[in-house]
Design brief:
The complex is a heterotrimer of chains A (about 90), B (about 140) and C (about 270).
Chain A (H helix, E strand, L loop, with lengths): L3 H25 L3 H21 L3 H26 L7
Helix pairs in contact in A: 1-2, 2-3
Chain B lengths: L2 H28 L3 H22 L22 H10 L4 H31 L4 H16 L1
Helix pairs in contact in B: 1-2, 2-4
Chain C lengths: L1 H22 L13 H9 L15 H9 L1 H20 L18 H23 L8 H8 L1 H10 L1 H6 L4 H29 L21 E2 L2 E2 L3 H24 L3 H5 L10
Antiparallel strand pairs in C: 1-2
Helix pairs in contact in C: 3-4, 4-10, 5-6, 5-7, 6-10, 9-10
The chains are: A mainly alpha (about 90), B mainly alpha (about 140), C mainly alpha (about 270).
Chain lengths: ~90, ~140, ~270
């Protein structure tokens, strides 16, 4: 029978695997808006792992910075610079 | 409480963080768009911070429930304090990671303004084209 | 192309080697068996009413380590953050002097009403997180990062006309930021100056009374632990971080022509 402790570690493992998948998608896509969205989903998976590792101060900082401020700055940059990644 | 399953899941987390480091490092070095390099750099910084907090964790034992390093009793007796010290995880890596996240954010903000300046000056954010243009530039200044 | 391929295969070899090393127990026990000795010392001393010459009067261990036991690290982190914001604002220094006359009206009425309600909620949550930093997880920097979302929403939904009408100008935000950082520095040397004036002995970054010096910040407020100087550090850091981020967003969200004016005379060499 699955215990409470086993469930915590199972969720931790699944979040880590999800974050690998989304990191790979971020680096591979050619549309920079999609890269920003995939990077935010990976940050949410990381915030879940931080919470399960019992670090509540870090969760507050990380959610505000990596899901709030980084995508904002990079979307600003993408709008002013160009949306698609072109090979020369 | 299945010790084998717990250790296997923890090992799986550590190994997937190794993969994250490799993929984001490849993204910083080998992609030719400056904005993609910036996104990969933020992923790299976040993964390294995660490694630091993994160091401060503790092994579960049957009958010992872990606790974040916050005391909830406002007038503790010595027995409560001893139980808090036995149960809590390490607070030192969390203090270091707080500082590291702030410094990473400051560096990213500064890099954003630099990328804006570069794109206005060279009219592109393709690193190969900027390299070729600068070669022509330096040759023209020397002649 | 060949360079990328060699780099990728090199990374794969390193990852496989590290995986084998971790799996066969070469990096020690995962997760570790016990916390280290210095951590159990810090956890024992941070709210121990029996040892009042080494405590910090706050039941939250992480805030006590950041602002009291390792206060000098946080001092240098604040300096790095200040320097980076300063550098980002200097690169666009002529944008702050140009008054922008925009005629924008913002988004529709529904969005404006909803944003007005949500902004009040964001500011309340941010103030609560920052001011309770010594009792619950939170603190100055967390509250500041949350509170910087509110002016950003107002900028996007109501337009820049909103800020210009209410005279929230660039120099006012800069004044708030410099004043709160100066007060942060003053809090750290306040007991030293008091010691000079009254002849007792004080230290830099001192929080509570030690065995050789009797000056201290108040540890209790009525009957709730106040944490001494930790409360004031959290408050000033909250104001400094929120106003710093608002400054950077105000500059970066300007129009393209205004930002390009920064590079105006560069074909002629200046």
């Amino acid at each position: 029978m699955m215990d409470y402790v086993d469930l915590v570690f199972l969720i931790m493992g699944i979040s880590a695997l999800t974050s690998v998948l989304f990191t790979f998608l971020t680096i591979r896509t050619k549309d920079l808006m999609y890269a920003v969205v995939f990077s935010s989903v990976q940050s949410v998976a990381y915030a879940l792992i931080y919470f399960l590792l019992l670090a509540p101060d870090i969760v507050l900082v990380y959610v505000a910075v990596a899901v709030g401020i980084y995508p904002l700055i990079i979307i600003l940059l993408v709008k002013k610079v160009g949306r698609y990644e072109v090979m020369s | 409480m299945d010790i084998e399953l717990i250790k296997f899941m923890f090992m799986l987390t550590v190994i997937s963080l190794y993969f994250n480091v490799a993929i984001s490092l490849y993204g910083v070095v080998s992609k030719i768009n400056l904005v993609k390099k910036l996104i990969a750099l933020t992923i790299f910084q976040d993964t390294v911070n995660m490694f630091t907090i993994l160091v401060g964790y503790k092994l579960w034992r049957p009958g010992l429930l872990l606790q974040p390093p916050v005391l909830t009793d406002l007038s503790p007796t010595p027995e409560t304090l001893k139980e808090f010290v036995e149960r809590s995880v390490d607070p030192l890596p969390q203090a270091f990671v707080l500082t590291a996240i702030v410094i990473g954010l400051a560096v990213t903000l500064f890099l954003t303004t630099i990328v804006l300046h570069v794109s206005y000056h060279f009219k592109t954010v393709n690193v190969d084209k900027i390299g070729r243009a600068k070669r022509v530039y330096i040759h023209e200044e020397a002649v | 192309m060949l360079r990328d391929f060699i780099f990728a295969s090199l990374l794969v070899i390193i990852i496989l080697a590290l995986t084998y090393l971790t799996y066969s127990g070469g990096l020690g026990d995962l997760p570790p068996q016990d916390v280290r000795v210095i951590a159990s010392n810090y956890l024992n001393l941070t709210y121990n009413q029996g040892i009042t010459w080494l405590w910090t009067a706050s039941p939250e261990a992480v805030t006590a380590i950041v602002w009291d036991y390792r206060g000098l690290d946080t001092l240098f982190e604040t300096v790095v953050f200040y320097g980076a914001i300063l550098a980002a604002l200097t690169l666009f220094r002529s944008v702050s002097k140009i008054p922008e006359f925009v005629g924008g009206v913002g988004l529709s009425l529904v969005v404006k009403r909803v944003t007005a309600i949500v902004t009040l909620a964001i500011l309340t949550v941010a103030a609560s997180t920052a001011l309770h930093g010594h009792l619950t997880p939170g603190g100055g920097f967390q509250g500041g990062a949350i509170a910087s979302v509110a002016p950003l929403l107002l900028l996007v939904v109501f337009g820049k006309q909103f800020f210009i009408e209410r005279r929230i100008s660039y120099s006012k935000l800069l004044t708030i930021r410099n004043a709160s950082l100066a007060l942060l520095g003053f809090t750290s040397v306040a007991l030293l100056i008091l010691g000079f004036l009254t002849g007792a002995q004080g230290y830099i970054f001192q929080n509570q009374a030690k065995t050789i010096s009797t000056l201290s910040y108040p540890p209790y407020l009525l009957d709730v632990p106040l944490g001494g100087s930790l409360f004031f550090y959290n408050l000033f850091e909250f104001l400094a971080v929120a106003s710093g981020f608002t400054l950077v967003f105000t500059i970066l969200l300007s129009r393209d022509e205004t930002l390009r004016k920064e590079l105006e005379g560069e074909e002629l060499g200046y």
